[in-house]
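Students often ask why we bother encoding 3D structure as a string. The short answer is that it lets us treat folding as translation between two languages. Here is a chain of 323 residues written in the first language.
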Amino acid sequence: MSPHREPTVVGVQNFNAAEDAAALRAAMKGFGTDEEAIIAILTTRSNAQRQAISQAFTHEYGRDIIEDLKSELGGHFEDVIIALMTPPAEYLCRELHHCMEGMGTDEQVLVEILCTRTKPEIADIVDSYERLYNRPLAEHMCSETSGDFRRLLTLIVTSVRQGARDEEAGVDHARAAEAAQQLYDAGEAKWGTDEEIFNKILAHESFAQLRLIFEAYKELSGRTIEQAIKAEIGGELKDALSAIVECVESAPAWFATRLRAAMQGLGTDDRTLIRIVVSRSEIDLEAIKREYERLYDKTLESEVRGETSGDYKRALVALLGPA
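And here it is in the second language, the structure alphabet:
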């Protein structure tokens, strides 16, 4: 997780919430809806600016902008716009809740949201989840997952309370070498794998510290931690640990592969496409676009255009920003 951000959405200078609220009200009032105006305003404002617009809208018109947007828009276009209007942590909480509700749990969504975020981001999600659903995220997750996979996710969401994976704390070379030795002893060096040790280290340490640990591991064992995980560990736990490792090396590359998977094969996984484009737009979407083109020799924009249509397409392309 590189500390420098590469967003495609940075908000506008000379922002005026009341003016934007008035323009959005005009776009929705009367006969027909001006979708172009809605896209032009909401895809260029930052989430903080959108929250200010929402407050101004209620203040000026006594109305809830999200309810108004829902009544005017439909389909995946509506999904994009409502995602943009939701505070980031709350949006990811709704996605987590959705992937665990009903029949079966979508483990890939749990991995995508929980294994790729820094500790401060996870702490935000944990707080928001309890506020929104009146139950702890860890408890809901425990009832929907099992085994070592459950233990890893639980460690990730509970360790934020103990200040683990603190991105600001700096790195410790001596501790990195120790952790690398523990991983080696728990995996390659013994018959059978001690998943507990992998879970503990990968859930607790910051991305910066993990980067050092993985370098030390390679020096020690002669192969990468990724190779070890793929050889030693199976199932959902392998996917989850691999996601952490890949995000330590390059989160944008990991998200690029996830976007590719969402658009390949029969039908598009629109929910994942929307979630990644919206939730990374103020973090590293510019870098994701670059990685996508490097990995697949096609621009992300051309792929999105090929998989979507209408206002839905226009909104996503606007969020992707200029090529």
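Translate back mentally: The chain has a mean pLDDT of 93. Keep this in mind for the problem set.
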